[in-house]
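Structure, all two chains, one model.
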Amino acid sequence: DQQVKQNSPSLSVQEGRISILNCDYTNSMFDYFLWYKKYPAEGPTFLISISSIKDKNEDGRFTVFLNKSAKHLSLHIVPSQPGDSAVYFCAAGLGQGAQKLVFGQGTRLTINP
Amino acid sequence: DTGVSQDPRHKITKRGQNVTFRCDPISEHNRLYWYRQTLGQGPEFLTYFQNEAQLEKSRLLSNRFSAERPKGSFSTLEIQRTEQGDSAMYLCASSFSGFGYTFGSGTRLTVV
């Protein structure tokens, strides 16, 4: 039972353009969502999060949008830079102090010069 | 404090052998988590500790797996009688009561 799904295994975007990564979830009890970035041979690093009481959270070039009715969240990166090339995971939890997170399968983002 | 440390980074073992991994969390973090990641998948929750107490274990954690966190500091994850299906990246993370979840670089296990 995949409670958090990232349906695009890979995405290729030109440098300077917008990257949009999508994530769907099935458990309506989730109320805290996060995006992580992972480079090869490293652990995931936290990027940005959003609570279910909000529909948007912005941090520099990164914006996360949450659509609770559709159980969908997206990560926008603008402008995309070559250093953004990595695997991106969305994750969901119950509460901001969640005991555990449920992760999607990941989307490999490649930024082309 | 340089973050969450995991040792070893890589481990190759023969099927049937026992292996043990170590995780040193960020010192002020009271929660410690173990996740497993296989190729093409996201990390999957295995277990977590609050201080020295193991509060939740996933059904993924068979009876061949055991985790400890003596004195609420570092943690060990032991896999007994390893099987080829145990080959994965084992990730440790720590947080202060669920906030600021920080992952280590992981231990990659290969069972041959």
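DSSP finds no helices and eleven strands in chain A.
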